[in-house]
Design brief:
The structure holds two protein chains of two kinds. Chain A is mainly beta. Chain A has strands at 4-7, 10-12, 19-29, 33-38, 45-49, 53-54, 62-75, 84-90, 97-98, 102-105. The N and C termini of chain B lie far apart (40 Å). The chains are: A mainly beta, B mainly beta.
Chain lengths: 106, 120
């Protein structure tokens, strides 16, 4: 199984800050890396797929980068509505595995 | 608009069974890969099962903790995916989400989730 490790597990930042979350995979794969946002009590929503492609309707302040085993989600200018938990996930092979999540507080 | 609506959850005793359904609309269901993902209270997301589209053979796969107890299936004539859950354990207690996708494009749409509680 591919293990996904996210860091940090939580962070606190101010409106307008640039925020970076990292995800490391236990083995290399070809960009089958996705990022999700989950707000309290709600279902997760896809933000980024294929490591760097923005899902439909997602604000452009969100971006993804990386390849191989190391990936990054960046929020260029944090907004109040970005308070949520963010998860990375690989869809390269089953079992599809998620990172442990990063809770972002404003 | 893509909609995924789960039903069939509830409270069940250990060893019991439940059948979850997910009714889909707003996209071509026959082409879609469908998944179930669960989240126990305060815990991380856990992928449960995948069924690929019939066009690519309808391949099925399961997470190890549910293999042999859960069965995923689809009815393309009704745009519905199912999860039959047998021999339920307390550790199966979670919110279960139906999702589309997998592979290159991630899990692109999610239902609102449905609670399954296994308790005596």
């Amino acid at each position: 199984d591919i293990q996904m490790t996210q860091s940090p597990s939580s962070l606190s930042a101010s409106v307008g800050d640039r925020v970076t979350i990292t995800c490391r995979a236990s083995q290399s794969f070809n960009n089958y890396l996705n990022w999700y946002q989950q707000k309290s009590g709600k279902a997760p929503e896809l933000l980024i797929y294929g490591a760097s492609s923005l899902h439909s309707g997602v604000p452009s302040r969100f971006s993804g980068s990386g390849s191989g085993t190391d990936f990054t989600l960046t929020i260029s200018s944090l907004q109040p509505e970005d308070a949520a938990t963010y998860f990375c996930q690989q869809t390269y092979s089953t079992p599809l595995t998620f990172g442990g999540g990063t809770k972002v507080e404003i | 608009e893509v909609q995924l609506v789960e039903s069939g959850g509830g409270l069940v005793k250990p060893g019991g069974s439940l059948r979850l359904s997910c009714a889909a609309s707003g996209f071509i269901f026959t082409n879609a890969w469908m998944n179930w993902v669960r989240q126990a209270p305060g815990m991380d997301l856990e992928w449960v099962a995948l069924i690929k589209s019939t066009a690519v053979g309808g391949t099925i796969d399961y997470a190890a903790p549910v293999k042999g107890r859960f069965t995923i299936s689809r009815d393309d004539s009704k745009n519905t995916v199912f999860l039959q859950m047998n021999s339920l354990k307390s550790e199966d207690t979670a919110v279960y989400y139906c999702t589309t996708g997998g592979g290159t494009f991630g899990l692109d749409y999610w239902g609102q989730g449905i609670q399954v509680t296994v308790s005596s």
